Amino acid sequence: MKKWMLMGLTLLLVFVLSACGSSGGSGSSDESSSSGGSDGVKEIKVTASNFKFEPSEIKVKKGEKVKITLENKDGNHGLAIPDFNVDLQKPSSAEFTADQAGEHEFHCSVMCGAGHSDMKGTLIVE
Predict the structure, then answer these.
(1) Which residues are registered as beta bridge partners of 35?
(2) What is the value of pTM for the model shown?
């Protein structure tokens, strides 16, 4: 019985730790993964993997309509921007108006492993 419990806990631990990989580095972009939509909406694709977002810095203009799309490359991740009431719990999109100037943190909103608390980025509204 103890052998099966130990095996089960080991498999659970492997699953939790593999939800996110461990890799350093950070990306920064305001254009490479964004485009202007035909309806005046700035479209931004954010890829989540290995305890990081790419891009990790996003710049938009105040008053601009933004559509942010989350894609998971490795593991299960979410993307939350609390200042704009955005919380993507799976690969999907959200639209909002960037009406608050300044720097706004975004972070992973799905517990993804040991580096989860370091999985952050910045939305800069100019």
Answers:
(1) 43
(2) 0.71
Torsion, Cα 102 32 56 97, to 10 degrees, reads 40
Indicate the SS3 state at residue 28: coil
Looking only at the bridges linking them, the beta strands covering 65-72 and 41-49 are parallel
DSSP E strand stretches across the chain: 34-36, 41-49, 52-54, 57-60, 65-72, 79-81, 86-88, 93-97, 102-107, 120-125
67-117 confidence digits (pLDDT tens): 999 999 988 999 999 999 999 998 999 999 999 999 999 999 998 888 888
Chain centroid to Cα 110, Å, comes to 9
**Backbone conformation region of residue 82, classed left if phi is above 0, alpha if psi is from -120 to 50, else beta:** alpha
* In contact, 34 and 45? CB cutoff 8 Å: yes
